[in-house]
Amino acid sequence: MFNLALLASRPPEWTHEQFIEWWRGEHAEVTYPLPGLRAWRHTAITSAMEPRSEGWDGLSVLSFDSEEAARAALAGPEWDAAVRHVGRMRGKRIAVFGEEREMFLG
């Protein structure tokens, strides 16, 4: 799997609960049509482990078969629609790509 990982924080005027509901609800509906999307995992962050990790509300991991498939999906109109849906929201975001390796399955 090749993943796009997104760590995001809510706009300052939103509550954590509003942001998670929006992300898992109406924003998810706009994101599901991404071509080649194999899996999507979302974590609603409930607390930071340490002070330098504070300020984040959620983590999404969108999985594709390959880097080429991920980049093709993000070059298409479906991704453009998802970006437009976010609009001028003033939250923060970190977006990174990477190859997944399963390290442990209990």
Short description:
This is EthD family reductase. The chain is of the alpha+beta class. The protein is built from four helices and four strands.
If you had to describe this structure to a student in words, what would you say it looks like?
The chain is of the alpha+beta class. It has four helices and four strands; from the N terminus they run E-H-H-E-E-H-H-E. The chain has helices at residues 16-24, 26-31, 67-74, 77-86, and strands at 2-8, 39-44, 58-64, 93-99. A four-stranded antiparallel sheet has the order 2-3-1-4. The longest helix has 10 residues, at 77-86. It is globular. The chain starts with a strand and ends in a 7-residue tail after the last strand.
Percentage of residues in helical conformation: 25-40%
Radius of gyration: 14 Å
Count of helices? 4
Strand order in space, largest sheet: 2-3-1-4
Largest sheet: 4 strands, antiparallel
Shape: globular
* Order of secondary-structure elements: EHHEEHHE
| Structural class estimated from helices and strands | alpha+beta
Q: Tell me what portion of residues adopts beta-strand conformation.
A: 25-35%
Low-confidence stretches: none
